[in-house]
Amino acid sequence: MDQTYSPVQQLLERLHDRHVKDDSGEVASYIPELATADPGWFGIALVTAGGIVYEVGDTRRRFTIQSISKPLTYALALEAIGEQEVRRYVDVEPSGEAFNSITLQQGTGIPPNPMVNAGAIATASLIEPLGFERPIDRILNEYSAFAGRELEVDEAVFESENRTGSRNRAIAYLLQNSGVLEQGPDGVVEQVVETYFRQCSTLVDCRDLATIAATLASTGVNPVTGSRVLREDTVRDVLSVLASCGMYDAAGDWLYSVGLPAKSGVAGGIIAVLPGQLGIAVYSPPLDEHGNSVRGIKVCEDLSRQLDLHVMTPGRRPPPPVRAERTLVEARSMRLRPEAEQQVLREFGDRVRVLELQGEITFAGAELVTRAVLDRADQTEITLIDLAAVRGISQVDVPIVSDLIDHYGELGGELVFSGLDRIPEFSESLAAHRRAGDLEPPNGFPDLDAGLEWCESQLIERHGGKRGPEKLALQQHGATLGMSPEQVARLNHRLEPRTYAAGEQIYSIDDTRTDEMLLVASGKISMYAGRKSAGARRVATLSAGMTLNEVPMIGRAPRLSSSRADTEVTGWALSHEGLEQLRAEDPDLVCSLLENLLGMVAVRVGHMAKDLLR
C-alpha cells in the first residue's frame, strides 16, 4: 500500500521527528548484551485491525522481545490448561513492586501476576512440549503465529542472560520452595529458567511487535495473515492483565495517562493495544527508572492524546441498532406472485415486521432491539430481523436474543433471522445455547430476500390466498388473456411442450442463443443476475402463468440473467420463428400476445425497481 499521503503515516513521522532527539534514560546494562544497543535506535509501527501497516524509523532492526514475551506465554498457558488451572500458580493482582522483585503473595505463596518475573517464570513452567522437542519450541511456534513470520532465539543474548541471571534463579527457587514449581532435583529449576531466558531472548523487530499488538486488538486473529491465534476469551483475559499489570509499578500512571493495555521490555520495546482497532509498537533502548522505554512512553502518550485512544474515553453514542423498519406491505421478496396471493399480502402484510439492524450490537443495542420487537407484538405474527449490515454481535447478547425468541413466541409470534450466518461466532453460540436448553434452533435464512419469501409464503398459507390449479391450461395462462378459443388453439399449434427437473438450468447468461421464450404452466423458476463465480443475485422468481426470456427473444437482445428451475417446471416454448409465423397468420393474436407480455414485463420491472430503491 502506498502510504505517501496517509495522515496516519504523516502523524507517525511527526512523532518520530519530535522525540528522536530525546536522549534521556539509560540503556539496560544488567544484561551485558543489552548494554551494546545504540541509544539512538528508534522506530514506531502501527498495524490496524484491517491489516494495514504504518512504520517509521528503525522498525526492521531486530532486538530481543524480553518481557513483552510474558503476555504471549500467559496466553499460551491459558489455552493449554485453562484459566482455572493457571490461576492455581499465578494470580492477576497488580503488585506495585519492581518487575524483578523476589516476593510472592502473602497467604497464597504464588506470584501476584504473570507480568512480573516471578509470575512469568511460573507461567513458563506450565508449558509442556506437546509435539515439540522442548517447551521453548512450542512457545516460539506461538510467538511466530502472533508475528506472522518464523521467529528465533538470539543465542548471544540467551547466553548473556543465562550467565548473569542469578536473581531470576533465586526467584525460581523461591517458587519451588512455595510449591509453585514442582519439587525435585536442581535440574527442574534450571530447565524452567532456561525456557524463560530463551523466550525473553526471542528476536523481533518493531513491525513484529505492532503485529502482535494488532492480533490482540483483533480478537486473536492476526490481521496480516488472517489466521486465528487465540480464542476471544483468552484475548479478554490477557488484555485485562495488561491493563492493570503490564507496566509494572507504573501501571496505574500509565492507565491514567495513556489508557491502553500495554507491555514493555527492557530491550526498549513497548506494545499498546486499542481493542478492536489497532496495535502500536515503539522501539527505543533508553529506559526510565521503571524499566520502560522513555521515547516509547512519550510516543504512546502523544498518540493516545492526539487520536483520542484512551479506552476510558466516554464513547460517542453509536447509531441506533435498528436502521429501518417495514412490513410486508412495503417490503417484498423477488418472487413474483399471482394476483390472489398479492391480495393476501396487501391485506395482511402489516402482520409481518422487518427490522434491519446495523453496526456493532452490544448489550445496550440488544436491549433496544428487544424493545423494537416487542413494541407491537400483539399486532404481528412474524418479525424478521435482518443482520446484513451488522458487523458483530457481543457474546453477552446470546441469552438475551434466545430469551427474546421464546418470549415473542409465547406472545404468539415467530422471530426469524436473515444473514445470521454472516456472524458465525454469534450464530454458533446462539445455536449451542439453545441446544443446551433443549430449545428449537433459531430460524434463519441466508439473506433478506430468502427471509422475505418465507414470510410471504407463511402469510399466504395462514390467510388463505385463492389458489389456482397446480398446472395451468394454456387458456388460463396470462399470455393468452383476451384471446378467442381459436386463437389459443392457433398459438398452441406453434408451441413446444417443455419439462425441467428441479435444479436444472433453463437459460444461461452465457448462452447467446435468444431464439425462444417460455410460457410457465407449473413450478417455480428463479432468475439470477451475474455469474455464480462472481456471486449471482436473485432478481425475480416466476411461477405458473408467467413468461421467461420474452425480452431477449422478441428484441433479439443479449440475455442479462440466468434462470434455474427451483421445482419441477412445465411449460411451452415459443420460438422466434413460430412468432413470425403467427404474425403472418393472425396479426391480432400477436398483438394480444405482445400486449399481455408487455403487462407482465412491466410488473416484473416494477418489482425489481422497488428492490433497487430499498
3D structure, described in words:
- The protein is α+β, with helices and mostly antiparallel strands.
- The protein folds into 3 domains: 7-307, 3-Layer(aba) Sandwich (Beta-lactamase); 323-462, Transcription Regulator spoIIAA, CATH 3.30.750.24; 474-613, Jelly Rolls, CATH 2.60.120.10.
- Helix content is 41%, strand content 17%.
- The two termini are 35 Å apart.
- The model has no long low-confidence stretch (mean pLDDT 90).
Indicate the topology:
Layout: H1 7-19, E1 43-48, E2 53-57, E3 63-64, H2 69-81, H3 83-86, H4 117-124, H5 135-147, H6 155-164, H7 166-177, H8 186-200, E4 203-204, H9 206-217, H10 232-245, H11 251-257, E5 262-264, E6 269-274, E7 278-283, H12 294-307, E8 322-327, H13 339-348, E9 352-361, H14 363-374, E10 382-393, H15 398-410, E11 414-418, H16 424-436, E12 443-445, H17 448-462, H18 485-493, E13 495-500, E14 505-507, E15 516-522, E16 525-529, E17 537-542, E18 547-548, H19 550-555, E19 561-565, E20 569-575, H20 576-585, H21 587-613
Parallel strand pairs: 9-10, 10-11, 11-12
Antiparallel strand pairs: 1-2, 1-7, 3-4, 5-6, 6-7, 8-9, 13-20, 14-19, 15-18, 15-20, 16-17, 16-19
